Amino acid sequence: MVANKKIDGFLSGYSEEVVSNALQLRKVLMENLPGITEQIDMPAKMIAYCYGQTYAEMICTIIPSKKGVKLGFYKGVDLPDPNNLLKGTGKYSRYVEIRSKDQLRSAALKQLIESALATYKKRMTG
Description:
Number of domains: 1
CATH class: Alpha Beta
Distance between the termini: 32 Å
Number of helices: 4
Largest sheet: 5 strands, antiparallel
């Protein structure tokens, strides 16, 4: 994975734990979403992962905060969640609160990311 000064700069205002978890999560996303594009949205304070320039082409977001890191899923309401990881009450989005390094490497989180990619592919093919 290529180091990214913009990502490092974006995360620089957060605690060491938040930065570490966000960078580990970034690595997991890059490993599981081939060819994904990373875009920093400064006003929204998040990093978006997408296959184009529109919301419809977005898969997920890393949302750092003082309290921790969330992995947000666009169209998360459409994702299967057998492990009950997803939280939130938004019309479309759901998120996972990242609480530990073990969670970042869990099969349940990887399965959710794979489901988000499959849902995206279905959405794009009509």
